[in-house]
């Protein structure tokens, strides 16, 4: 395993790239203006939607220099009117593991930078219907947290065609919500683990960024026509995993409350270790380096980003090196334990999973050759042989070894955590399944961010208005009323039932290409595998 000091010395000889800032544009005298106290921003009127939007507003100070790996701080006040017309710079990102074997065994997602990546990236976007200054009754608020394995993603999506456009959410809510899309530190910048980080910095910096943004919403959303008492947090993939972290944060006793409800799309919950467990410490190769954190704070950001990418790629295929840890303060125990004890924030929950969550994260080049027990041992490097064999027996009836492996990845990391989450909100939770073929991870995203209908590369988009409305409106109806059956506009979706009755809503299509939206009963065998 490489030494961080040796690697940094080696990388120092590499050519680094400069930061490129999005050019500021002069504000128009007709632009909507909002005064946040520390800054005044000029938004813009979106003529195609009729909505007002403020893009790239700073919610925290730049987490650079001495603030690297520290809790987010309030922005420094600035004078004048700042333009909020452009998507913000993305945070520096890395990728998923690419190795056939995990380096942590104990004895694609697409990524891009639509605007130049920067360490100074703690910004958010706010979208409001019509004229926010003439909204007579404050509206419910939806705060969207992007996914990307805690390694990539941004407020503007993964590529130039799939931005997380809050205007879509407003349209699906029939002009009934204010939408907020946030960014947070990711990769080594947001989730550096280890004892030294605990002593001389802050663990889970990316989660604390999100928490800080939620506090910003409480302080400022009324200025945009939003009701801080009716906030729903919604995330996809690692964004949904982030939602879980906020649900269990501070033993479920966050006070004052920062949200009333939660939505998870593909809840991403990989193994969550204690900050000083062997795996997170080994993953950064800093366990024996003195004063490594202070050293890393002085490192040029471009060199550190190179390290970020290299370390991110050493993980087992489809996994991510930098993820949340149990820090003992914000996250006090492993999430599954908190969910079992029903120590959660919030009043209600809506969760959706995709039929084949795991396929995207399994190496296709080894799928036909790797043995199921070997795969389990690589995915869960701390478990013993008896547990490995027990898990293999549970999946023996799923089908071919390839199907078993895809099932293990998808159920262990995404689907099973969702059912623990549903149980934690007994009588107050709803469950949906996105089953439009191929039903892979992320295939659902274009159906609620509908500005772009291409979907993922090679995945056809089911461009049926009745289906799109049935699926997307359920999320927004829930955000507005805590009940997806209380429809803002008529759809083909049948009534939802609280999940503790074991009933879900399947969103699929028939072989002839018609929408097929109907109740299903949760598989008993699936729930047994999740135990």
UniProtKB/TrEMBL annotation:
<feature type="signal peptide">
    <location>
        <begin position="1"/>
        <end position="22"/>
    </location>
</feature>
<dbReference type="InterPro" id="IPR019826">
    <property type="entry name" value="Carboxylesterase_B_AS"/>
</dbReference>
<keyword id="KW-0378">Hydrolase</keyword>
<keyword id="KW-0732">Signal</keyword>
<comment type="similarity">
    <text>Belongs to the type-B carboxylesterase/lipase family.</text>
</comment>
<dbReference type="InterPro" id="IPR019819">
    <property type="entry name" value="Carboxylesterase_B_CS"/>
</dbReference>
<dbReference type="InterPro" id="IPR002168">
    <property type="entry name" value="Lipase_GDXG_HIS_AS"/>
</dbReference>
<protein>
    <recommendedName>
        <fullName>Carboxylic ester hydrolase</fullName>
        <ecNumber>3.1.1.-</ecNumber>
    </recommendedName>
</protein>
<dbReference type="InterPro" id="IPR029058">
    <property type="entry name" value="AB_hydrolase_fold"/>
</dbReference>
<dbReference type="Pfam" id="PF00135">
    <property type="entry name" value="COesterase"/>
</dbReference>
<feature type="domain" description="Carboxylesterase type B">
    <location>
        <begin position="31"/>
        <end position="498"/>
    </location>
</feature>
<comment type="similarity">
    <text>Belongs to the 'GDXG' lipolytic enzyme family.</text>
</comment>
<dbReference type="InterPro" id="IPR002018">
    <property type="entry name" value="CarbesteraseB"/>
</dbReference>
<dbReference type="GO" id="GO:0016787">
    <property type="term" value="F:hydrolase activity"/>
</dbReference>
<dbReference type="InterPro" id="IPR050309">
    <property type="entry name" value="Type-B_Carboxylest/Lipase"/>
</dbReference>
């Amino acid at each position: 395993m490489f030494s961080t000091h040796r690697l940094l010395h080696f990388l120092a000889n590499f050519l680094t790239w400069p930061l490129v800032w999005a050019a500021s544009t002069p504000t128009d005298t007709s632009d909507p203006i909002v005064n946040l106290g520390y800054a005044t921003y000029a938004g813009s009127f979106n003529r195609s939607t009729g909505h007002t939007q403020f893009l790239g507003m700073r919610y925290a100070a730049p987490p650079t220099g001495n603030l690297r790996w520290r809790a987010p701080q309030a922005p420094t006040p600035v004078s004048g009117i700042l333009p909020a017309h452009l998507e913000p710079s993305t945070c520096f990102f890395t990728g998923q593991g690419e190795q056939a074997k995990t380096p942590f065994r104990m004895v694609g997602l697409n990524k891009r930078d639509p605007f130049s990546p920067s360490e100074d990236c703690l910004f958010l976007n706010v979208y409001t219907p019509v004229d926010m200054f003439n909204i007579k009754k404050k509206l419910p608020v939806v705060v969207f947290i992007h996914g990307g394995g805690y390694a990539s993603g941004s407020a503007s999506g993964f590529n130039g065609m799939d931005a997380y456009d809050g205007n879509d959410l407003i349209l699906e809510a029939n002009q009934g919500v204010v939408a907020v899309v946030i960014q947070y530190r990711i990769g080594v910048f947001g989730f550096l683990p280890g004892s030294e980080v605990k002593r001389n910095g802050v663990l889970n910096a990316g989660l604390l960024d999100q928490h800080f943004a939620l506090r910003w919403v409480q302080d400022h959303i009324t200025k945009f026509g939003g009701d801080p008492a009716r906030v729903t947090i919604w995330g996809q993939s690692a964004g949904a995993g982030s939602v879980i972290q906020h649900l269990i944060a501070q033993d479920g006793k966050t006070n004052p409350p920062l949200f009333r409800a939660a939505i998870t799309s593909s809840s991403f919950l990989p193994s969550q270790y204690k900050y000083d467990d062997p795996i997170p410490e080994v993953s950064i190769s800093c366990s024996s380096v003195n004063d490594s954190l202070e050293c890393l704070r002085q490192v040029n950001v471009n060199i550190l980003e190179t390290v970020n990418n290299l370390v991110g790629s050493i993980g087992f295929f489809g996994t991510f090196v930098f993820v949340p840890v149990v820090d003992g303060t914000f996250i006090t125990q492993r999430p599954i334990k908190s969910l079992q004890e029903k120590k959660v924030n919030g009043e209600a929950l809506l969760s959706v999973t995709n039929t084949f969550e795991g396929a995207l994260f399994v190496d296709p080049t080894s799928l036909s050759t790797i043995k199921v027990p070997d795969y389990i041992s690589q995915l869960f490097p701390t478990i013993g042989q008896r547990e490995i064999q027990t898990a293999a027996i549970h999946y023996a009836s799923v089908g071919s070894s390839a199907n078993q492996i895809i099932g293990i990845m998808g159920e262990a990391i995404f689907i099973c955590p969702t059912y623990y989450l549903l149980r934690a909100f007994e009588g107050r939770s709803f469950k949906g399944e996105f089953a439009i073929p191929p039903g892979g991870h992320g295939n659902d995203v274009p159906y609620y961010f509908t500005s772009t209908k291409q979907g993922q590369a090679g995945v056809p988009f089911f461009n049926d208005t009745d289906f799109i409305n049935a699926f997307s409106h359920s999320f927004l109806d829930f955000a507005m009323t805590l009940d997806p059956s209380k429809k803002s506009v008529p759809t083909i979706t049948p009534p939802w039932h609280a999940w503790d009755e074991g009933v879900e809503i399947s969103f699929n299509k028939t072989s002839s290409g018609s929408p097929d939206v109907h109740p299903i009963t949760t598989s008993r065998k699936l729930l047994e595998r999740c135990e």
